[in-house]
Amino acid sequence: MNDLLFSPEQHAHAARLLAEFNTRYNSSLAERAVHPDVDRATLRALINSPLPHEGTSLDALFEEFENVIVPNATHTAHPRFLPYVQPSPNSLSAYADHLAAILNQNCTLWHLSPSANAVEQAVTGWFANLFGLPEQSSGIITSGGSMANLIALTAARDHYLGPNAREQGLQSQTSPLVVYASDETHACIDKAVSVLGLGTNNLRRIPTDDAFRIRLDLLSDAVAADRKSGRTPFCVVGNAGTVTTGAFDPIEELSQFCRTENLWLHIDGAYGALAALSERFREPLSAIGLADSVSLDPHKFLFCAFEAGCVLVRDRAMLANAFGASPSYLSQSEDPDFIDYSNYGPQLSRGFKALKVWWSLKHFGADKYAETIDHMADLAAYLAEQVTRRDGFELMAPVVFNCVCFRLVGLDEKQNEQVLKDLVESGAAFLGPASVKNQRGLRACFMNLRTTEADIDYLLDQLLTIASK
Ligand SMILES: Cc1ncc(COP(=O)(O)O)c(C=O)c1O
């Protein structure tokens, strides 16, 4: 047998080391510092070595992982890890990823991965049904929301450029294509716009109202002004959960506007679209099915381990229009029951990410997710209540979802930033920065399966202690 392969005994040994580590790690999380106190020189000395020509034993690798990698890792599953839009993973994902790696399906041409292909279709079908997208819709599991948004905007661009889009690109375009999104929109839309050659000068950042929702009157003015000056408006990006305050743009009104103006409506739901699993958040998300495309992130509100995003399009032909390819060295055998996913996105080789998404929904069930999402919103409401009730803090934005933007009163912006930095460095908790209507403060986003109200109390006490110094 080749030396790169394990014997059955080695497999059993590796599985035991893995299981033991997993149990030890999960039960020790709360005692760890959320953020490591990284001694860079020591870390580099421990990790950097000349290219090894001889092998290292499995036991030594696991030992090094536990003694060097883990203590210098940020513990994203720690109960007080609350920055950004970043959940702690559900326990199942690690096992699904493990199985996916063992089976090593290449989820590109369907005949390289028939059962994985059926699974990916099943989960994207569940999502399409959740949003009420039509029969001809379809989608693909991606690395995350950024890639999902890039794929959606590519489909929109190529649709608007017409039949020669792929051959001519933007080079024959005399009237610049313009994209519109609120000023609360995630920076990955800027990235997508620049990757697609549209130029970020052609991304109009439309101001938001007091609830951080896109101003439709200003959107309408901007589209009219661009048409008047000879530009070509083609796409509006709406948010199902803005990255800082978690606001939901008025999706139904956006869809009416886009229909009238013949614009592609993409909903960036990386953060919040899956909140539609909960009755509490269904209403603001009920019109997602009217959009031309929508992104969502199973590695956010399904608590799948990184990476798992998804993009859905209203008309599956739009994906094939942008990404379809049949080079001579790939034998594609069309079959109405299967999809060649290489025609739905830029990747050729793709792993079986859909397994952890499928398993998570099957194992925990949609109702458990609805409860969990509500619980996250309840934790945010609890923090908001404490911030309002206690001396020393104030809210910076209304709390509509699972995140809270707040600051320490009596301290200026720089001092708030310093308190945040000191808090993270202390290892007691990890919050993120917030910039709300040009004022800087702190942000806690509740997506952590271990956080309790006691953690929130502790966190506020820590902030006051640091501030008093
Ligand atoms: C609204 C929004 N869009 C897009 C993204 C990017 O998603 P990802 O990190 O999965 O690429 C995020 C990430 O937090 C987000 O909140």
Task: Describe the protein's architecture and organization.
Helix 1 packs parallel to helix 3 and helix 5 packs across helix 14. The strands form two sheets. The protein has a seven-stranded mixed β-sheet with strand order 1-7-6-5-4-2-3, sandwiched between helices. It is 44% helix and 13% strand. It has two domains: 260 residues, Aspartate Aminotransferase, domain 2 (3-Layer(aba) Sandwich); 103 residues, Alpha-Beta Complex (Aspartate Aminotransferase, domain 1). The chain has 469 residues and is an alpha/beta fold. The site of pyridoxal-5'-phosphate has 13 residues, from helix 6.
How are helices and strands ordered from N to C?
Answer: HHHHHEHHEHEHEHEHEHEHHHEEHEEH
**CATH class call of the largest domain:** Alpha Beta
How much helicity do the residues have? Answer: 40-55%
Spatial ordering of strands, largest sheet:
1-7-6-5-4-2-3
Q: Roughly how many Å is the radius of gyration? A: 24 Å
User: Which fold name corresponds to the CATH topology of the largest domain?
Assistant: Aspartate Aminotransferase, domain 2
Strand content: 5-15%
Quick one: how many beta strands? Answer: 11
Mean pLDDT: 96
Largest sheet: 7 strands, mixed
Question: What is the CATH architecture descriptor of the largest domain?
Answer: 3-Layer(aba) Sandwich
Tell me which oligomeric state these chains represent.
single chain
Structural class per helix/strand content?
A: alpha/beta
- CATH homologous group name of the largest domain: Type I PLP-dependent aspartate aminotransferase-like (Major domain)
Terminus-to-terminus distance: 63 Å
Bound molecules: pyridoxal-5'-phosphate
Alpha plus pi helix count: 17
Question: In the residues, how many domains can be counted?
Answer: 2
